[in-house]
Amino acid sequence: MLTWGDVRRWDPAAIGRVADALNDGCTRIIAANDDVEAMARFTGWTGDAATAASTRGKSLTSTLERLVAEASAVRRGAQEVQIALDRIVAFVRETDELASRHGLLIDAGGEIRPSGPALPGRPRVTAELADRIEQLLRRATDVDADFADIMRRAVRGEITEQGGSTLAQAADAGAAQSGLSIIGPPENGSPGDNKAWWASLSDTAKVALLQGSPGLVGNLDGIPATDRDAANRAVLAREITRLQGDPKLKGLEAIRQRLDRSDPQAFLLGLDTGGDGKAIVSAGNPDTAVNVATYVPGTGSELSKIGGDLGRSDKMWAAATASGSPSTAVITWLGYDAPNEITDAASDKYADGGKAALAGFQDGLRETHQGPPSHNTVMGHSYGTTVVGHAARDGGLAADELAFVASPGVGAHDVSQLHLDGVDPGETGKHVHATVAEHDMINLANVEIAGYDPILGQDPADADFGGQVFTSAPGTDGWGGYSTEAHSEYWEDNNPSLNNLGQIIAGKPTT
Questions:
Q1: 113: helix, coil or strand?
Q2: What is the DSSP letter of 304?
Q3: N or C: which end of the chain has fewer CB within 10 A?
Q4: CB 276 within 8 A of CB 303
Q5: Burial class for 401, CB neighbours closer than 10 Å (0-12, 13-18, 19+)
Q6: Is residue 139's pLDDT more than 60?
Q7: pLDDT digit string, tens, across residues 207-248
Q8: Could you read off the pLDDT of 84-93 as tens digits, one per residue?
Q9: Nearest-CA neighbor of 404 among 425, 394, 418, 424?
């Protein structure tokens, strides 16, 4: 049985050197493919000696094909195991450092002992360390068993080549039999289904999927944020190379630049470059944050323009932190096809097209969160509020608060038509917040005509809607008292709406 001391001594680089040596050997043998094939082929030579030589040559060729297949299987397994070991060794180091910071020591047997004066919070840290040790040793045992199985199959001759193949084909066949039997995610699975599937995989299998099929994992709700991020970073690098000259490249570069910055660390939770493109980027880790907000942008939003939305999320993260949030994640959720023009925004089809994806994403945040449930806010700007409203109206949202900024309507007449999971229906009005600037052009969309509600529903900032209205600056004045500039000024540093959004995210009263 593996111990903490065993895992602490693991050297991923040694496994990497094995993989490199096997790769070099296979490469040299494959390069000699023509010479190997010639051993079984003797043009112009007949008779018993020629037959014997040809038979011997075919036997040698078959042996080399088998050896190349076996070496390739072990090589691929070693590469995947090395990456898995890197993750485990990093986790061991982080856990040892956490123990040391709190005056504790983890001995070789995994026992936690005092190594200095008692510090505040020691019982909580001790419990966390015990959980980490148990989890890590289980993962390490899985990785060890995976690699041992690959080696046993190679030694027993259970790795097969393709009959009559070239050496290169034999190598490919062997690599495909690396010893991992990976079943894909459940078709049309819920976030809970996806979480259960991912948890069922060994660390080595997860690494194999993250390396070989990142697009399969990166957009699945219910997969932990760190793993979605790892998968989507691989997709991002590939798409930046592929989409040179495409307008979407600007957005991809903005995402890459944000991922390169810390304070807070960013996580790429979704990426799709089809059509106008979609992306989900979190400022902070939503799986560990106490307060988690999802921001849905509105009309004209697309991948090429995501840089501005990322900046807004960073500002809301800072505002929530300044409001006393102990840990925060603010997610830019461009996970739907937004209207391209103002004229398109008169239709609710875009909201109906995005509501299920938003609801599924919120369900996924609940599934993957570690520790006590986080305080979750879903906010929309402009047409993004319509998406949020339709999702809350038609099935509900896994959220504690809704915030509507500059809304053209949320598809509801009042708060009684909105549903938040875990919030008493009679208390919904206390958890729905809205604002609109005095000079915002969006006010023209919220005018009742002949007693009928506006096209997209009642203005949630109207007192009759039943929510909590919070303050924002009047905004830039313009023709007839309205301007388009005022529609985008809610995140300016001197605008009270930004402070209020931080208060909502932090679970505190607004002004």
A1: strand
A2: G
A3: N
A4: yes
A5: buried
A6: yes
A7: 878 888 899 999 999 999 999 999 999 999 999 999 999 999
A8: 788 888 889 9
A9: 418
The stretch 327-353 carries a mean pLDDT of 95
Note whether 238 and 213 are within 8 A (CB): no
d(Cα 498, Cα 225) in Å, to the nearest integer? 26
| CA distances from residue 55 to 61, 62, 281 in whole angstroms, order as listed | 10, 11, 61
Which residues of 27-129 form beta strands (DSSP E)? 104-106, 112-114
CA distance 462 to 446: 9
Pairing of strands 375-381, 401-405: parallel
Q: Are strands 401-405 and 432-435 parallel, antiparallel or unpaired?
A: parallel
Region of 282 (left: φ > 0; alpha: ψ -120 to 50; beta: rest) is beta
Find the Cα–Cα–Cα–Cα dihedral 408, 411, 416, 421, rounded to 10°.
Answer: -100
Specify whether the CB–CB gap between 90 and 203 falls below 8 A: no
User: CA-based diameter of the chain, in Å?
Assistant: 104
Structure token digits, residue 170 = 């034999």
Q: What is the 3-state secondary structure (H, E, C) of 250-309?
A: HHHHHHHHHHHCCCCCEEEEEEECCCCCEEEEEECCCCCCCEEEEEECCCCCCHHHHHHH
DSSP secondary structure letters along 357-369: HHHHHHHHHHHH-
Type of residue at 159 = I
Structure tokens that stand for 180 in this block: 């991992």
Cβ(378)–Cβ(362) below 8 Å: yes
Look at residue 468 and give its three-state secondary structure: strand
Q: The whole model's pTM is what?
A: 0.77
